UniProtKB/TrEMBL annotation:
Segments forming domain MASE1: 14-231
A single Gene Ontology CC term: plasma membrane
Top-level division of the source organism's lineage: Bacteria
InterPro entries, A to Z: MASE1
Pfam families: MASE1
Sorted UniProt keywords: Cell membrane, Membrane, Transmembrane, Transmembrane helix
Protein name as catalogued: MASE1 domain-containing protein
Broad class of the protein's primary localization: membrane
Topology versus the membrane: Multi-pass membrane protein
Subcellular location: Cell membrane
Residues spanning the membrane: 12-29, 41-71, 83-102, 123-141, 161-185, 212-228
Length: 231
């Protein structure tokens, strides 16, 4: 019983450490632009990080995410207690609810085979339902409460193009960038998983029928990056 409790505490503390490091980093590297004179994210990567941490740690990530987001918000934005609680609710509620629904539908192994099994449920609830619900809660919060100018555009009625890009930034973060955080974090946390991952990956690259494909894939990737990044 005591050993089981110690394992739970260690998982929670490890998840908290990961959140404290990765949440500010994900905010920092999130791409942004200016529309109608207001700053907007093209992909809000903390959403990707939330899913990644939940897929790795499960329920042990809930409290660390709440604590880490609360501290990060307080560090970055000057908010009253009411504003801080509302912002925290808007950021986390939809993600927790979508994961709870997927857990209810798929059972205890809802986190297994992230990109191999039950993709439909994960894509719908995590990739579309949660981002839309997140935006709805922020809009409703903005109707009844005032927020600082730095973040007020996310809570109010803006132009059509601003709203579309705002919602798109959440959907793209959930669908595209979750694995961007999931696999590196899991490999950092578990060296055994990292060795197995790279062993399987390198084995597929070295297979005779895949060598030419791999070579051309890297050449095409380099060409695309060159075209997109050249001034």
């Amino acid at each position: 019983m005591l050993d089981h409790l110690n394992i739970k505490i260690k998982k929670t503390l490890l998840a908290l450490l990961v959140c404290f490091i990765a949440i500010p980093l994900s905010r920092f590297i999130s791409p942004q632009t200016i529309i109608d004179g207001n700053q907007i994210y093209l992909a809000w990567l903390p959403l990707s990080l939330m899913y990644s941490v939940l897929f790795i740690f499960g329920r042990y990530a809930v409290a660390p995410l709440i604590i880490a987001f609360a501290i990060t918000n307080a560090w970055i934005i000057d908010l009253t207690l009411t504003q801080a609680l509302i912002l925290l609710f808007c950021q986390l509620f939809s993600v927790f609810l979508s994961c709870a629904i997927v857990r209810f539908q798929l059972g205890r192994r809802w986190r297994a085979g992230l990109t191999a099994k039950h993709m439909g449920a994960r894509i719908f609830w995590g990739g579309f339902f949660a981002p839309l619900l997140l935006k709805v809660t922020m809009y409703l919060a903005g109707r009844f409460f005032a927020f600082p100018l730095a973040i007020s555009s996310y809570f109010g009625s803006m132009s059509v193009i601003y709203t579309i890009i705002d919602i798109q930034s959440l959907i793209s973060a959930a669908l595209i960038f979750t694995t961007f955080f999931y696999y590196p974090l899991r490999m950092i946390i578990s060296p055994r998983y990292a060795r197995a991952f790279w062993r399987n990956l390198c084995h597929s690259w070295r297979a005779g029928e895949q060598r030419v494909f791999t070579l051309y894939w890297f050449v095409a990737l380099a060409a695309i990056l060159l075209v997109l990044c050249t001034p």
